[in-house]
Amino acid sequence: MLAYHDLEWGVPVRDERTLFERLTLEGAQAGLSWSLILAKREGYRRAFAGFAPDLVARFDDAEVDRLVTDASIIRNRQKIESTVSNARVIDAMHGAGDTVAELVWSFVSDVPVHNAWTELGQLPSATAASKAMSVELRRRGFRFVGPVTCYSTMQSAGLVNDHVISCPRWRELGGGVGSAS
User: Fold this and answer.
1) Which end of the chain has fewer CB atoms < 10 Å from its terminal CB, N or C?
2) Which of the 8 DSSP states describes residue 120?
3) Are 114 and 179 in contact (CB under 8 A)?
4) Region at 10 (left for phi over 0; alpha for psi -120 to 50; beta for the rest)
5) For 29-65, what is each residue's pLDDT tens digit?
6) Measuring CA to CA, which residue among 71, 103, 69 is closest to residue 86?
7) Which listed residue (16, 26, 117, 151) is catalytic?
8) For residues 56 and 87, is the Cβ–Cβ distance under 8 A?
9) Does the annotation count 34 as an active-site position?
10) How far apart are CA 7 and CA 9, in angstroms?
11) What is the rounded CA–CA span in Å between residue 134 and residue 142?
């Protein structure tokens, strides 16, 4: 968990595969602990073709049935099916010349938001931006993308810097420059 915090959480991500991975893992985490999801991340990467949306979009019912028995991931059929479904939406977006990166980053005007929290209890579970993102993703056909999952994705993918100001990562990631209050 410490390595994830120190090296990944809050670092701006614009790579399609990585954004698909973050969205998937945040959705998989719903109702579970983040440490469990991190422990299964390599299993997810193997199970979902390195999060290549074009490959996952081709998964059929037999592949979903196989994944439901794969102990290296969370064996929740709805979460697995949502990953395949979301990959199909992303693949269709790519076919239309759109990207997930452009879409999700549009909710922060393409610039990370640097919050200035002094304690962890101040961090919101959802914001107006994550609610708007959820509505738009759902409109496009994404699943397991509620406002809390969207905000968690925004945090993990660096759309928002929610390290508390006493954490060295807050400043390393740009906190203090144009920070929100």
Assistant:
1) C
2) G
3) yes
4) left
5) 999 999 999 999 999 999 999 999 999 999 999 999 9
6) 103
7) 26
8) yes
9) yes
10) 7
11) 9
